[in-house]
Amino acid sequence: MTAITTEPTEKTGARTAEAAELISDARERIDALDDRIIGLVQERMAVSAVIQKERIASGGRRVNLSREMEILATYRDALGRPGTALAMTLLELCRGKI
Fold first, then answer.
1. pTM, whole model, 2 decimals?
2. pLDDT digits (tens, 9 = 90+) for 22-44
3. Which DSSP string do the residues of 30-56 spell out, in sequence order?
4. CA–CA separation, 87 vs 68, rounded Å?
5. Is the CB of residue 15 less than 8 Å from the CB of residue 8?
6. What is the CA radius of gyration of the chain?
């Protein structure tokens, strides 16, 4: 049987040592995932900058709205309504405000 402490562990909010350890390990994984996600977003921003530069240099517009609609649909289909908000944030990070 796992002992229950009288106070939750401050860092994790857990009431047992087992739960606190599991939460700490899972948080380390989340932190590593967040680092990877940030790196991928930065990479996406760099690729988007290349696309915008070439599009403008060729006489096109900075933003391709039909392509953005495809991206919004992809995120919405994969993640539901919050996916649309996430995609909008990514688009704004990558191309700036329109």
1. 0.81
2. 999 999 999 999 999 999 999 99
3. HHHHHHHHHHHHHHHHHHHHHHHHHHH
4. 9
5. yes
6. 21
